[in-house]
TrEMBL record:
The chain crosses the membrane at residues 87-110, 141-159. InterPro entries: Cell_shape_determining_MreD. Pfam families: MreD. Belongs to the MreD family. Keywords: Cell membrane, Cell shape, Membrane, Transmembrane, Transmembrane helix. It is found in: Cell membrane. It comes from the Bacteria. GO terms for cellular component: plasma membrane. This is Rod shape-determining protein MreD. GO terms for biological process: regulation of cell shape.
Length: 171
């Protein structure tokens, strides 16, 4: 029973932690113009996509993407679509190259980059975002990758162990 609810619980805790940590990481608090956006839920979803069936990761991405859209954005579907696409692409690439902590680390950074770029591109397309691409890359994407890279390394061994147990039980 505990194993069945631990994974959704971890994703939920990561989702709540994102908004809590976001209040601390706002540009007016860090002294720079940087905006570090925690994507902890996405990182957990990417690990789920790497270890388990793609459908499981996509389902988590759809649920938490919709929650993100409903709670934090004015346009419904941007995060839901972007997170699901990112989870799917990560699962496809992980089947080709997955094997160790370094590959998982780089796939999660690529996934965060994919999500951030998709969301920024879609928001720019509809006129919600008005930041120049160069400023976006330096002031938002690079600090976001740094924060989420540290998070990925911090949780890797715990989530690897847990997802391996689930994968073995399913096979």
């Amino acid at each position: 029973m505990m194993n069945r609810i631990l994974l959704p619980f971890l994703a939920y805790v990561a989702f709540v932690a994102e908004s809590t940590i976001m209040q601390v990481m706002l540009p007016e608090y860090n002294g720079e113009g940087w905006l570090m956006v925690p994507r902890f839920t996405l990182v957990i979803i990417l690990f789920i996509s790497m270890y388990l069936k793609p459908q499981v990761g996509i389902a988590y991405a759809l649920v938490f993407g919709l929650l993100t859209d409903l709670l934090y954005t004015d346009i419904i579907g941007v995060y839901m679509f972007s997170m699901a696409l990112t989870a799917y692409l990560t699962s496809v690439f992980s089947r080709l190259v997955f094997g160790n902590v370094f590959v998982a680390f780089f796939l999660s950074l690529i996934g965060v980059t994919c999500l951030e770029t998709l969301v920024f591109g879609l928001n720019s397309l509809v006129g919600v975002a008005d930041m120049a691409w160069g400023i976006y890359l330096y002031d938002r994407l690079l600090p976001t990758l740094l924060l989420n890279g540290v998070f990925t390394l911090a949780i890797y061994y715990f989530i690897d162990k847990h997802l391996q147990k689930i994968k073995d039980r399913l096979n």
